[in-house]
Amino acid sequence: MSETQPERGKSRVTVLALDRWGSVLVGEAGPPSTLLREGESADAGALRVFEETTGELLEELHLFRDGEASHHIYYCDPDLAIEELDPPAGTSLRYVAPVEIEAAGLPDEARTLLTRFVGSSAYRAMFH
Known about the structure:
By secondary structure, the protein is an alpha+beta fold. It has one domain: Nucleoside Triphosphate Pyrophosphohydrolase. It contains 3 helices and 6 strands, in the order βββαβββαα. The strands form 2 sheets. Strands 3-1-5-4 form a 4-stranded mixed β-sheet, with helices on one face. Strand 4 and strand 5 form a beta hairpin. The longest helix is centred in the middle third of the chain and has 13 residues. The relative contact order is 0.24.
C-alpha cells in the first residue's frame, strides 16, 4: 500500500486489480492504496492511485463492500501485462494468485484483505 500507516479518521482507497487467472496485482506493501486528498471522492482517489502506481487509467471499478466505512475497496479485472505497466522508479509490481497469498510476504493488512476478497462472492462472480 502506498501509505505505511493510515491516519485515524482519514478515508482511504485500495484497488484490487485482477488478471485473467484471478491473480491480484500488488507491490511490495500490497495492492495500490492511498489516503484520499481533501475533497477527493473515493472513485477519483481509486483511479488516481491506480494510475500513479501503474501508469494505466482504469475504465471500470466495482466497489467491494467489506471492511471499515473509511476504507473504500474497489476491484476490477483489467488483465494488464506486468511488462506493459509503468510504475514509479524503484517500484516493482507482480501478480499474486489466491493460493500464494499466505506465502507472498505481504503485510498483515494486505494479506487479510486479499484473503477476504478471494473468498468473497464478488470474486467468485467474476469467474462463473
